Amino acid sequence: MRDAKSLIETMASQLRELLARQKMTEPALIGIHTGGVWVAEQLHAQLGVTTPLGRLDISFYRDDFSRIGVNPQVRPSELPFDVENRHLILIDDVLYTGRTVRAALNELFDYGRPASVLLAVLVDRGGRELPIEANVAGTHLTLSPDQHVRLTGPDPLQLLVQTLP
Amino acid sequence: MSATHIQLDSQGRLLHFLTIEGLTHRHLTDILDTAESLRGVAERRVKKLPTLHGKTVVNLFFEASTRTRTTFELAAKRLSADVLNLNIATSSAVKGESLLDTLHNIEAMQCDMFVMRHSQSGAAEFMARHVKPHIAVLNAGDGCHAHPTQAMLDVFTIRRHKPDFPSLQIAIVGDILHSRVARSLIHALSILGAGNIRVIAPRTLLPAQVENLGVQVFHRLPEGLRDVDVVVMLRLQRERMEGALLPSEQEFFQQYGLTEERLALAKPDAIVMHPGPINRGVEIDSRVADGPRSVILEQVTNGIAVRMAIMSITLGHHARLTGEDA
User: Fold this and answer.
1) What is the pLDDT of residues B23-40, one digit of tens each?
2) Whole-angstrom Cα distance, residue B218 to residue B231?
3) Cβ-proximal residues to B220 (8 Å cutoff; 6+ apart), any chain
């Protein structure tokens, strides 16, 4: 069990630096349901972003529909801004295979053509199956495939590492 | 009993969508919640999701339909499926054998879903019993039996306006006897725990023992409309009527037609629904159909999201069942 608060502060300061270096103004933040939205809500407040927060549910974009079907807990995606020509920061809790991010990028492009997309994650646990990397990570963990990392929340936000039986 | 049974797998998941009867509150709310997530797709630049990419949906319509067939088609296309429309005009009695022949021929085209409308009750269930295990069958209306996707889009529309079902009084008005829409809607509303379901119709247009469905029966429109939250008008189905069930359309309108004056008896925020196509001046006055309380066109829009939900849920369960690879 680990508190996510300091990790999110790390993410916020890295993002501030990155945005300044790349001269990106007025970025929009988008959290991926569910854990990514929790992290994005905190970052949104800490970075003082004025554009309202976006929320993405990638259930209909997953590449394993033909194995697992529709997620019954699917929620509407809400992007309360125009994606066209905007700098976006995509936020998730855990980066693992990269498949969720692939699905999220595909969904984003169905809303418009963004100027750029950065990826910020709370935890990068390695194990990528696609050529996807985070621009910002709160922490890097080295875990074996039988270990599972999960964010519990929304209050308090805590990281839970479990070994699957 | 049987249609209920065949549409679920051993763990109670939806494999086909044939009838509302026998489904649980959970089945219905899963469909409604999924449809809610799909509703926004129509407002995006790309009105399409990749979910059913590579799947083939066959619209098999043995009976005329514009709205239902086109919204099924659009639903499938918005999920990236390929769609084949077969409009098979036939006489009312289609033999089981020829239906089976049709089925095997379409099966041979490697499709994944049948959306079927037929004038015979039980036709979709018959298909579901005989299709290969990877194919899902959706009932788009069978005779006077059921029209479950219409019922789901109706309750979806009601829920978006008035989400608290136990507090609702809902009146279904008109030709209940021939209406598969009414039957399916009554089942859906009961499962969702609607407070009071009323049917308002002349005796000749009510099925026998309609009270057994858990509805309150009224024969006079003004009494039945008093204080209701939702009014569902049905189309007068002249084509299904045998013999003299009705005096004349004018007389029907005088007694059962929804006018602004009669609508005033309902709650001030009551909504007016109709599955379409509407017979203006027969069951509903134009001023009501086009008025501020009418949600008739919303029902059409919602029909797309609801059908997308049912398609993706049933095909998703098939995929899991047959262990198909991504």
Assistant:
1) 999 999 999 999 999 999
2) 13
3) B200, B255
CATH number corresponding to B2-147+301-322: 3.40.50.1370
Q: Which residue has the tokens 């049974």?
A: B5
- By C-alpha distance, which of B162, B118, B110 is closest to B144? B118
Kindly list the residues from chain A whose CB atom is less than 8 angstroms away from the CB atom of residue B50. 60-61, 106
Q: The tokens of B126 are what?
A: 């018959």
Predicted TM-score of the model (pTM): 0.93
Write down the residue that tokens 């999920």 correspond to: B79
Domain ranges of chain A: 2-163
- Nearest by CB to residue B319, choosing from A65, A76, A78, is A65
State which residue of chain B sits closest to A76, comparing Cα positions. Answer: B37
- Residue B253 contacts residue B283 (beta carbons within 8 Å): yes
A69 touching B, CB under 8 A? yes
What was the ipTM of the complex prediction? 0.89
Count of CB atoms within 10 A of residue B302's CB? 23
Q: Which residue has the tokens 């044939």?
A: B18
B212-252, pLDDT tens digit by residue? 999 999 999 999 999 999 999 999 887 666 666 677 888 89
Q: Do A70 and B312 touch (CB under 8 A)?
A: yes
User: CATH number of the domain at A2-163, out of 3.10.129.10, 3.90.1200.10, 3.40.50.2020, 1.20.1530.20?
Assistant: 3.40.50.2020
Cα B32 → chain centroid = 13
B245-291 confidence digits (pLDDT tens): 677 888 899 999 999 999 999 999 999 999 999 999 999 999 999 99
The nearest CA of chain A is from the CA of B11 a distance in Å of 15
Task: Give the CATH superfamily of B149-295.
Answer: Aspartate/ornithine carbamoyltransferase (3.40.50.1370)
**CB–CB contact B34 A72 (8 Å):** yes
| Residues 6+ away with beta carbon under 8 Å from B272 | B231, B233, B258, B263, B284, B288, B289, B291, B293, B294, B295, B296
Q: Please answer yes or no on whether A77 and B48 come within 8 Å at the CB atom.
A: no
Min Cα separation A13/chain B (Å): 33
Whole-angstrom Cα Rg for chain A: 15
Using CA coordinates, name the residue in chain B closest to A60. B51
